[in-house]
Amino acid sequence: MYIYGHKNPDTDAIVSAVVASRLYKALGYECQALRLGELNKETQFVQEYFGFAIPELKEALPDGSQVVLVDHNEISQSLDNLNELEIFAIIDHHKFNLKTSSPLNIRAEIIGSTASILYKMFVENSIEIDKQTAGMLIAAIISDTLYFRSPTSTEQDREIVEKLNKIAGIADLETFSLQMFDAKSDLSEFTPEQIITMDYKPFDFNGKKFCIGVMETTSPDFALNMQQQLIEAQVKIKSENNLDGLLFFVVDILHEQSTAITCSEFETQTVLEAFEASQVSEQILNVGSIVSRKKQIVPILEAYFS
Ligand SMILES: [Mn+2]
């Protein structure tokens, strides 16, 4: 079995693939964690901090291979031949948009991270969680919930982190979370196009082909200072991929507010109307206290375009 998180992997996608492979191995399965893209800076920090082996990059599997999907369920975020693969299980906390040709195991919950679900699966199966695994799960929960700032965060996520830290023994979780977010915010070595597509997912809004990039950062000024390059990169990506719309949000983690940098009049109007945003300048829009693509940005756009 090959275990995959989504394309443009974040910390939850990478950690959940690794930890799910530990879970399934403990349950007697032969399996391997793989990945569909490069580690972001935050995940690199987490990987070095805990010293786990990075899953191998393998962007294609032969038809008929058996896979487990963690932290995603849509083909657009997965292997290109997903419809020709045998999905053994999906463990996820996103909305579902899925049609399969055979039965499968699905574990989905309304919870802050896939890592939180994996914690429960270890407990339910009476499998011991080692110190490294506990730390990795904590990092993934902190990442997805923005250390409990995101509206996707639940009371369960807090309780799980508390229980896991009895094993992991991270002295100061607040400081650890800031180290993670600062690592993620260091984008100095990336091109504007890489910054737009680093945390980037495709969506269909009433037949309109959209992509939404999100930059969660403790230094929003970094993006605002290069707004012209970020706009040009968006225009290029939008046209190369024949998108109807491309949106890019800079999420200020510490102040819990977001700014959209829009690439054309269409996106500007969309953000102004859908989010009742206020215009800072022609292509810089303040969308207020929105931080979650999953729970805020996407549902708002779905409602708007419907
Ligand atoms: Mn996740």
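^ manganese (II) ion complex. The mean pLDDT is 97. The longest strand covers residues 208-217.
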